[in-house]
């Protein structure tokens, strides 16, 4: 199906999206490729909905939906890739393209904290609701939780995240909470990746809601990768590592992931731009290398 076909279906047959979701072949969650003990390899593509289109020096790298979809379909076709994380528009395109068959589908829930906005840390739940994910037979949700002790908007995000976790648990759906302690530097939100800050963010996120039974953590590798061992002891919740930008050091990033993946609570990788837009442009090779780390 081409991009023109997608537009035609959306314009004339919007019900096709629900039909594709209803017949999609699912896989057990967490599952994971054979021989990996249920460790997950997930490709992330929920950045555009927050207005975050840049990769490296290219501020509009993710602005072409056709290009993004081509990269996602290629990534999902590689052996060992378990699924994708995205917002409704992206996951629905992938549904129509047939790219989610037998894959884990994770819906991004809060995208209201637009990149660079004054209200960035009042990160409203403008994406998937638990009831949407259950209705579409998707497998999990994801919530971004940035906390700035000097920004009152963080309290609204904390409260909304707690209730979202409750709603997901009521449907017995896992939710990946991505916590950070953040602060504004020259007007821009910066996440603190120091070991102490990451440990505090884990402690806060782990205690949210009326149950943590369905909560997973989506964590960055700490500034000092050696800190990950004690940082991940802050909680017994299962952890997946987030990718983030590599700063041009792809090999160094792989080595950080490799070390962190050896920790007992770490159950996989959720990586977006660094695999979809690698410096050398070879998406398949970048994805295959990340899968090999598992």
In this structure, how is the largest beta sheet organized? Answer: 8 strands, parallel, barrel
- The CATH class label is Alpha Beta
Largest beta sheet: strand ordering: 1-2-3-4-5-7-8-9
CATH-scheme architecture: Alpha-Beta Barrel
Uncertain segments of ≥5 residues (pLDDT<50)?
A: none
Written account of the structure:
The chain is 36% helix and 18% strand. The chain has 294 residues and is α/β, with parallel strands linked by helices. The chain has one domain (3-293): TIM Barrel (Alpha-Beta Barrel), CATH 3.20.20.70. The protein has an eight-stranded parallel barrel, surrounded by four helices. The longest helix has 18 residues, at 153-170. The protein is globular. The model has no long low-confidence stretch (mean pLDDT 94).
